Amino acid sequence: MPPKYSFEKIKFATDPSTFEKAIKLYEDKKISKFKENFGDYSAIVHGTKSYKVFVSGRRYDDGSCECYLGQNSQLCKHMVVVAIYACLNGKKLVKEDKELIGEPICSGVLGELSESVMVENKKLITDALKYIKSYIGPSRTWFTYQSSLSEGCARLSVVVSSLPVSEQTAKLLVDLLLRLDKKLCTGGVDDSDGTVGGFIEETVVALQEFVEFDPSCISAFEKLCSQSTCFGWEEPLVRIFDEQSNS
Q: How many CB atoms lie within 10 A of CB 170?
């Protein structure tokens, strides 16, 4: 029986260091005696020592391991690699599976999206935004909530970084930034650690780089001229638009 989570979920929800270490264990074939137990999974993971590992089939971060982190109720690379194996069953990973994008960047590639690809990207954005939600839980769920914000921003970073540079995609990113701003201002998102704000600022930097490749992208910033945002992130883009208008 396959787990309730996917490899994609593990990739975006796990901190990069732990994910990369788990990938190395997976590719080095450090798992033995993998078993499914009524929808959950167990295995031996070989590293400095050999550890008995258990992982839930419902949540990959729910389980146990004999290593130091596991004994202290923390998610470890051994649990993650068993969860990955449960998803992939030993299937070989391709380069794209292992690639992590830490922040949104400008692709530097000129071009526009076809109508179907634009629809696909809009869906990816909408799906990622579901992880950036209001905080209504008790204090004990705080770290889980912060992980959700991080996962949402990680998913969005992949979308942003894959976009070609054009006025069309610049408009898409401006709309994304305004949706995020609305979540921060009136949507109940608690961004105390600056995860979402940091993503917004990095995307603004990417949009400034868009202009260097294609000056027509500047027109996408006009929509920001009448906006009042949470922390003034739009100011560099509005300045670029004003400078062009006055030249």
A: 23
Round to whole Å and give the CA distance between 114 and 157.
Answer: 20
Share of the chain above pLDDT 90, in %: 88
**pTM tops 0.70, yes or no:** yes
Q: Is 51 exposed, middle or buried (0-12, 13-18, 19+ CB in 10 A)?
A: buried
pLDDT in tens, 169-200: 999 999 999 999 999 999 999 999 999 999 99
Please report the pLDDT score of residue 6 as a whole number: 96
3-state secondary structure labels for all residues of the chain: CCCCCCHHHHHHHCCHHHHHHHHHHHHCCCEEEEEEECCEEEEEEECCCEEEEEECCCCCCCEEECCHHHHCCCCCHHHHHHHHHHHHCCCCCCHHHHCCCCCCCCCCCECCCCHHHHHHHHHHHHHHHCCCCCCCCCHHHHHHHHHHHHHHHHHHHHHHHHCCECHHHHHHHHHHHHHHHHHHHHCCCCCCCCHHHHHHHHHHHHHHHHHHHCHHHHHHHHHHCCCCCCCCCCHHHHHHHHHHHHC
Pairwise CA distance, residues 244 & 30, whole Å: 58
pLDDT at 139 exceeding the cut of 80: no
Report the distance separating Cα 186 and Cα 167, nearest Å: 28
d(CA 99, CA 92): 14
